[in-house]
Amino acid sequence: MQKEKTFVMIKPDAVQRGIVGEIISRFEKKGIKIVAMKMLSVDRELAEEHYGIHKGKSFFEPTVEYITSSPVVAFILEGNNVIEMVRTMMGKTDPQKAGLGTIRGDFGQFIGRNIIHGSDGADTAKFEINLWFKPEEISKYCRIDEDWLME
Ligand code: IDP
Ligand code: MG
């Protein structure tokens, strides 16, 4: 398994509903390492770049408005196969279809208020990490449980 980084964003609805800690806690308990984290109010330019791949689709404009409506918490997670692992932990895009036990399945009800974003592949992760973070905002360290997570 390859060590990789992924970009995750806790969306405005989850910040407003006070479940940031619970969501981050799930990643921590899974043994996934946080290597960068910040709260920020997203401007239109950043939101449009982030969702650029969806430009022209019906949900593009509402999604840009959603993401810019109130602060988000953005972070970078690092670990083995972490891109896929985080997508699995998030669940399907539509919280109604996401399984119970997933973040979207447990905390969301509507596709337009789906709690969290996570990069969907290696290229997207690279693009999004670059878009949201400067290199000096990313920490390098070992967690004390690392030896006990791996076989
Ligand atoms: P993903 O976040 O699971 O990767 P995408 O298809 O890449 O899903 O869509 C990006 C985001 O756009 C979704 O997380 C959601 O916030 C929003 N979105 C996608 N499809 C719809 C829709 O049909 N209605 C409203 N919002 C949508
Ligand atoms: Mg996506």
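^ magnesium ion complex. The mean pLDDT is 97. The two ends are 12 Å apart (CA to CA).
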